[in-house]
Amino acid sequence: MSRTAPVTSGPRTQGFNAVIKPGRGGGTSLPLIPRLKQRRKRRVRPALFWFAVVWLSVLILAAVFADVIPGLPAYDEKIGSFAQPPDLTLGGLLGTDGVGRSNLSRIIYGARVSLTIAIASTLIGLAIGLIVGMIGGYYRGVWESAANIIANTVSALPPLLLLLALVSAIGTSLLGITLALGFVISDLYIRVTKGAVIGNANREYVLAARALGAGDVRIMTREILPNLIPVLGSIIPMAMAIMIVVEGSLSFLGYGIPAPTPSWGGMIAAGADIMRQFPYVIAGPVITLFLTVLSFNAIGDYLSSRTDVREGKL
């Protein structure tokens, strides 16, 4: 004899209904379990995002106010002996380099170089990409072909070799390295901008603005450009991370900012010969470089997930 389970109603009805959710037309759907997994995944992202925000905020503040931090020696001031181990003083907290200068001080002052180059080169590449990409995507035809030629020319050459050639021609100054990096990263913005403009050029709001007599410049700047901000906003932090890594690579190869101005890549290169005997000489700049790149990538990934059209978060 079969037994039937008692039927309950009202707020007591839980269990299977908590997993199987009624669908449209009387059917059932099973969206809850994937949603729970998705929520767990999203809960991790804000934690890493806020860690990245705190780390970059501290780094930027330290770099900006390095000259007035009490007890912090100048980046070219000799405070100890060769590769002195860390101590409890502020200047010697991370030890000294091969010349006896404070590693902590040079990391903080080096942040000025790395962050300045990362921000400025990204903005230069963004400006080039916006102008070329918007014109090519909006007018199409020969303008699109010209934009493709520019982007393909930049991306066809090995980035490091192109950078070395540009830096050798322009010079290893702060301005020269920034311009070279901005030009190399511009092909990314050209492609992204052009594709986004092509996708928005025939939307209803653009056609309505054109029907009301709006000019091309007004349509591109007032109608299309605001819709590119979510896409570009998630790419910019990741591009900054790339710029920091590339600038560090140039400094490591000897094509970075000339000494005695500190840079993270230059510090790693200077301590490479003695890192086995004195690992703390390069530990500071390596960890700082890693955390900074991780932070920019985390912010870019978080912004990308928050502005994903497929998730309906625009």
Summary of the model, kept short:
With 314 residues, the chain is mainly alpha-helical.
Provide the gyration radius in Å: 27 Å
Instruction: Write the CATH fold name.
Output: MetI-like fold
Q: Mean of residue pLDDT?
A: 83
CATH class descriptor: Mainly Alpha
Strands of the widest sheet, in order across it, are 1-2
Identify low-pLDDT runs.
1-37, 39-44, 309-314
Assigned CATH superfamily: MetI-like
Helices, by number, come to: 10
Compute the separation of the termini in Å.
57 Å
% residues in beta strands: under 5%
Q: Give a quick account of the main beta sheet: strands, pairing sense, barrel closure.
A: 2 strands, antiparallel
Helix content percent band = 55-70%
* Strand segment tally: 2
Class per helix and strand makeup = mainly alpha
Subcellular location: Cell membrane
Organism: Microbacterium thalassium
Biased composition (Polar residues): 1-16
Protein name: Peptide/nickel transport system permease protein
Main features:
314 residues; mainly alpha; MetI-like fold; two-stranded antiparallel sheet; 10 helices; elongated; disordered C terminus
